[in-house]
Predict the 3D structure of the following.
Amino acid sequence: MSELRTTLVQCDLRWEDPEANCRMLEATLGELGSADTDLIVLPEMFATGFTMNSREMAEPMEHSATVAWMQDQARQRGCVITGSVAVTASGEHYNRLVWARPDGSMLSYDKRHLFRMAGEHERYAMGDDRVIVELKGFRILLSVCYDLRFPVWLRQQASSDQHFEYDALLCVANWPAPRRHAWRVLLQARAIENLCPVIGVNRVGKDAKGLGYAGDSMLIDARGEPLIDEPRDQAFVMTGRLSLDELQAFREKFPAWMDADDFTLDEGATASCD
């Protein structure tokens, strides 16, 4: 049986203090490693909080101390670690989800949908590409926070040789408490409509402006049922298991994909239906 052990790290963050946040997370994770988990998931902008101070806080990607810390943690713990970081690359600032592997290699996804209500679209560049990574037999689509509101971007895209493009959806976030209902509902909706588990990790505490975050980090199965769903406002580190065999059995038993509309995204990320 192919299983993916996934660790959700719901924590409070120190405002614009990468060193303090990395120290806190190291202590929080303790001895957690390959004997316990395959994947450690941190919140969006875990090193800084959801800062719009991109000129000061975005780290050069090639020399990022935070990214180097992620690589080091992945090597030491023997598992993948992921979370988003404010970085500078090719003259632009990005809210970049980094996927750091134990062998030192990395993949990344740049947030596509930038939260205009906070001015993120004025301070960070928009990503162009959907990114799917593989781990323990699972194909995982990466996303960041506001992306969750846009089902076109996250929709399964069937091809001629496979019905499912990915097997799990991962979303890291700084999603405020006043909109927690939307976060919870959208995580479950994305699972149900795409017939796949969803991994959602959010923060707790308050940011520099006093905006509160309730957490609501969840691990959800393909039926939309929560496997991990702890009380609000509590920091926690918790590991859940996803089974690829169980997922495939459910998809065969409940083949809603057979009635789905044909669907593609062109290079400009616009949708077309046949």
Remarks:
- The chain is about 25% helix and 30% strand.
